[in-house]
Amino acid sequence: MTAHIAVLPGDGIGPEITAPALEVLRRLGDFAFEEHDFGGVAIDRHGTPLTADVLEACRASDAVLLAAVGGPRWDTTDPQAPRPEQGLLDLRRELGLFANLRPVKALDGLLDSSPLRREVVEGTDLLVVRELTGGIYFGAKTRTDDAASDDCRYTATEIERIARVAFNAARSRVTSVDKANILETSRLWREVVRRVHGEEFPHIELEHALVDSTAMKLVTAPRHFDVLVTENMFGDILSDEASVITGSLGLLPSASLAGTAAEAGGRSDGPGLFEPVHGTAPDIAGQGIANPLAMFLSAALMLRHGLARADEATALESAVDRALAAGLRTRDLGGDAGTAEATAAVLAHL
User: Which one from 62, 226, 236, 321 is the annotated catalytic residue?
Assistant: First the structure.
């Protein structure tokens, strides 16, 4: 059966890593791809980062594959000016994408690419589960000439559902990350996670940790973690920090899922959104040197969590691992392989 994929190449290196990802996917199955303007390019062409037509196309798809959005040309402090990132927030909200999964795994072939010592990162295999549609990013905002505010708000229901995603994904331990010594939202977070654990997942170990101490432990003892679950802003920051474990942001994929099936550890109920963690890298755009591997791994998450094609997902992940084990190194990993060379290396192992 043909899977219909809404493709959002976005800005900067986005189009450069999108084309090879679609080439790889065509080797793995029958897909219908439909590309749309999104982010900064949509602002330039349509005056808004997410048009109504593109939103409807995403709703009608089986999954959404996004490369990257944003860049200096659209940076502004004017609260009335459109920003590429707002299109991403709107898309997450409109599709109900509350659960963001960011796996971080230290690969044997890349242990020396990490700025952390080999003995620190070796064996790391963790998952950051980030709540994606609540918190300060979506709270009410005010702005005057000399003051501004962003409201951080969570409900018990929002916390319950993301906690279930984390517990269902865990092998042995969930670390719930908050700032309960200061924030009232974190105190509610801790209480609700504790209740969900006791009522539904007593067989999984639960620990509570403050975000500042977790940030330190993530780079001093990353093997300690199995699944980290946290609120929107903390999860954004911690998952980017975790990129140092792998050696590059160019290797980190993500999946954003919706619905009760996602709570139960399955696929997204509606179209999920799959994207690399990295940004648009405008400084290298157009040079043919962007690392496409995070985009490939995001496509693998799409196959697994968006389309229930686990065998194809495993095949793609294995091809990336074997290409790296055979010596593939893009510039961000200390080598000289460009986008085309990296793509050819993965295809050769697929």
Answer: 236
The parent domain of residue 235 ranges over 115-246
Q: What is the pLDDT of residues 127-158, one digit of tens each?
A: 999 999 999 999 999 999 999 999 999 999 99
pLDDT tier, 84 (very low <50, low <70, confident <90, very high otherwise): very high
Average pLDDT for 183-192: 98
Give the total number of structural domains in the chain.
2
The CATH number linked to 19 is 3.40.718.10
Tell me the residue type at 260: T
pLDDT (average), residues 32-45: 97
Q: Is residue 129 located within the same domain as residue 237?
A: yes
| Two tokens, residue 24 | 């790889």
d(CA 133, CA 192): 17
Boundary (domain end) residue, out of 246, 267, 298: 246
φ, ψ (nearest 5 deg) of residue 27: -75, -15
Active site residue 53: no
Which of these, 72, 89, 80, lies nearest to 11 by C-alpha position?
Answer: 72
Amino acid at 304: R
Known active-site residue 154: no
Residue 179 falls in the annotated catalytic set:
yes
- Predicted confidence at residue 262, as pLDDT, reads 79
Determine whether 137 is an active site residue: yes
pLDDT confidence of 324, banded at 50, 70, 90?
very high
Whether 11 is a known active-site residue: answer no
